Amino acid sequence: NLPMVFFVTPTKRRPEQKADLTRLGQTLAHIPNLFWILVEDAEGPSDMIRDLLDRLKMTQTSAHLAVSTPEKMRMNASDPNWKLPRGVEQRNAALEYLRTNHASWHRGAVYFGDDDNTYDWRLFDEIRKINRVGVWPVGIVGGLIVEAPIVASNGTVTGFTAKWKPERPFPIDMAAFAVNLSLIVENRDAGFSFDVPRGYQESHFLTSLKLSRNDLEPRADFCSKVYVWHTRTEKAQLSKKDLQRTLDPAQLS
Ligand code: UDP
Ligand code: MN
């Protein structure tokens, strides 16, 4: 009776998507009691991802959803990727899915794992250990080699090493925390929003769960270990023809 890990991944169609999801899927396929909620930023679920889940033998331990980012919030390929919030609609769809389908799992932790990050297997043990909300360091993010909560000798979180917008209520990355599923179920309006300043999605979400800094449980050996890195996949420079090919659903698988 290992607690469940609900791993939520918003994912956008782009030339590197299949490579990123193959690497992530081959990490997740080895983790016991993990349920992968993949939410495509698309009109409908793609055959490419359905076939990948099938090859990974994860069809029974995953949900494959799709919801498009609204037109006016969608970015162009040439936009810098921080221009607009990413994954808002998709993560909210995953939260609704959890409330509808998994509300009875009171020993479950929800984690937001983007498709291009790097995850050490040891992260999943830490996710399972949380009571309400766990936090840990993230490598290569916010202009730092490690961004981490600061933990006092009595084991409480007293601050953060963040250099970028340290004034945020929770100056941490999406990969830096997990929350108990019961919080998602109890706070039905909690979620992500387009109406939030850049860098404030994490703070907005944790606040919507009525959490405060005092609630943070430091994990990963009192936040001294790095088990997740905010790696980013370089955008491929492709000819128009190849770009068109990768965006055509029929060519994806
Ligand atoms: N994403 C999405 N729709 C978008 C852009 C991104 O669903 O329009 C997904 C993407 O696949 C990733 C997550 O949202 O899983 C975060 O995006 P990205 O990795 O580009 O952001 P960053 O690394 O800058 O946090
Ligand atoms: Mn990323």
Structural overview:
The chain is of the alpha/beta class. 28% of the residues lie in helices and 22% in strands. The protein is built from nine helices and 13 strands. A seven-stranded mixed β-sheet has the order 3-2-1-4-11-6-12, sandwiched between helices. Strands 5-13 form a two-stranded antiparallel sheet. The chain has a two-stranded antiparallel ribbon with strand order 7-8. Helix 1 runs parallel beside helix 2 (47-55). It is globular. The model has no long low-confidence stretch (mean pLDDT 95). The structure holds uridine-5'-diphosphate and manganese (II) ion (MN). Manganese (II) ion (MN) is lined by residues 114, 116, 232. Residues 9-12, 41, 69, 75, 81, 86-87, 90, 114-116, 232 line the site of uridine-5'-diphosphate (UDP). It comes from Panagrellus redivivus. Belongs to the glycosyltransferase 43 family. It is a single-pass type II membrane protein.
